[in-house]
Amino acid sequence: MRKQNNANLGAASTGLLVIDVQNDFCPGGQLAVQDGNIVVDPINQMIACAQNVVATQDWHPQGHSSFASTHPDKTPFEAVEMSYGKQTLWPDHCIQGTNGADFHKLLQADAFQMIVRKGFRQAIDSYSAFFENDRKTITGLDGYLRNRQIDRLVLAGLATDYCVAFSALDAASLGYNVSVVMPACRAIDLEGSLAAQIMAMRDAGIELLEYVPA
Question: Which of 92, 94, 118, 161 is an active site residue?
């Protein structure tokens, strides 16, 4: 198991990674996560303490292949086989240039030093901040972090069991020390996905914090 240290957001080698805190994932959005807006305040607290802040942003084109609406006779949350494997189908969400794709209005997004836009390729979805769902196509985040000599990541955002967990697991596999701030995350929990991903993160040596670090 990877050795963990207490999160220190003010350290030059620590990065805060804010995952997909966008309108469509908050109450009233097209793919709303229950209580998704609750993550904004604790994330803003962490942003105020952090030296390095990066965010991800779902950024889908119209008619994206992960949308149920693009597949005849399919409904949201069904799964289909894509060239890269199993893909859950979602309601249309976070479409480029729409209000749904915008960050939550109360999120301190001006502090973001880099924004990783993902899911913008028509034929492939992207949960992770590091790789698209083919597990081969990189986003460029790893290179950016290594250039900045960041080796520890603290993650928060939406949703715990999808984009947060995929990002955390990839970060751990790439050799980063990783913490996920559970009070600053909310889950979709689709057919037991939350419990499964919590177990996967623990097995990978990822620290699951039950408090908001400073």
Answer: 118
From 20, 24, 161, 170, active-site residue: 20
Per-position pLDDT tens, the chain of length 214: 333 446 799 999 999 999 999 999 999 999 999 999 999 999 999 999 999 999 999 999 999 999 999 999 999 999 999 999 999 999 999 999 999 999 999 999 999 999 999 999 999 999 999 999 999 999 999 999 999 999 999 999 999 999 999 999 999 999 999 999 999 999 999 999 999 999 999 999 999 999 999 7
Catalytic residue among 26, 92, 94, 163: 163
The architecture of the domain spanning 14-61+94-209 is 3-Layer(aba) Sandwich (3.40)
Distance, C-alpha 197 to centroid of its chain: 13
Give catalytic status of residue 3 as yes or no: no
Question: What pTM did the predictor assign?
Answer: 0.95
181 to 29, 189, 213: CA distances (angstroms)? 23, 17, 8
Going from the C-alpha of 90 to that of each of 57, 123, 144, the distances in angstroms are: 16, 14, 30
DSSP symbol at 104: P
C-alpha to C-alpha distance for 116 and 59, rounded to whole angstroms: 9
Is 163 assigned a catalytic role?
A: yes
165 CB neighbour count, 10 Å cutoff:
27
DSSP code at position 68: G
- Give the start-end residues of each E strand in the chain: 14-19, 53-58, 79-82, 85-88, 114-118, 152-158, 177-186, 207-209
